[in-house]
Amino acid sequence: MGAKDSKPSFISYDDAAKRVSDNELRRIREAFKRCAGANGSTLSLEAFVHEVLCDGVPFEVAEWLYQACGGTKRGITFKDLLCGVVVLTKGNIEEKIKFLWTLYVNNQSENGTYIYKKDFAKAIHLENTSLPVTEAHRTVEILTGLFGSGERVTFDQFRSWLLIHKDATVLSKWLLYDRSHVVHDLETPTFYQSLAGVTHLEERVSWQYIIFHLLEPIFI
């Protein structure tokens, strides 16, 4: 895991809580307590991978998502997990870009002021080798487009580039691609629609059912 233990700042807990109903928040909290075990206050990385994400998510990518949501060696709190999942499922493009920045910055040994070319290249390679892709990703062109002749970029540089190249990486394409114009035979339920609606399942099953639908376009 990366060196970061700092909390992500892409959304506040109060803002996240306002985007769900009281009933949804109650059910999410109950599911978290069930998965958190004895102390009920934090979810471990192992529990996050096993209970929250579906089995098809590669461990390295699951670890990135865990840490970007606020997870540390001590675990992830309910508030941090809620903030992360709200951004993934209900966030606007600015919040999702901040999430991606946090995800990539956390996966390197340097401080969080820059994304470094060598670390970003490793991340792209891992994405392209561990996640199913439908087309070849030209790593050299991506790196040249973002970094030019330099070795690092700031958040503002990363943001400006990503707004133009939303499909540059597997994860950015998953998070930023506009699916509003895509018509499906059955609408995929959101995290909260599923959690609020699946009343006949145990919470543990609900977590996996919900995240399966959330991550299905990229991981399945």
- Oligomer class: single chain
- Main beta-sheet annotation: 2 strands, antiparallel
Going by helix content, strand content and strand pairing, the class is: mainly alpha
Side-by-side strand order of the widest sheet: 1-2
Pfam families: USP32_N
Protein name: USP32 N-terminal domain-containing protein
InterPro entries: EF-hand-dom_pair, USP32_N
Organism: Euphydryas editha (Edith's checkerspot)
Structure write-up:
There is one protein chain. The chain is mainly alpha-helical. The protein folds into two domains: 111 residues; 84 residues, EF-hand (Recoverin, domain 1, Orthogonal Bundle), CATH 1.10.238.10. A two-stranded antiparallel sheet has the order 1-2. A two-stranded antiparallel sheet has the order 3-4. Helix 2 crosses helix 11 and helix 4 packs across helix 6. The N terminus and C terminus are likely disordered. InterPro entries: EF-hand-dom_pair, USP32_N. This is USP32 N-terminal domain-containing protein.
Key traits:
two-stranded antiparallel ribbon, 220 residues, disordered N terminus, EF-hand-dom_pair, disordered C terminus, 59% helix, 12 helices, USP32 N-terminal domain-containing protein, Recoverin, domain 1, USP32_N, mainly alpha, 2 domains
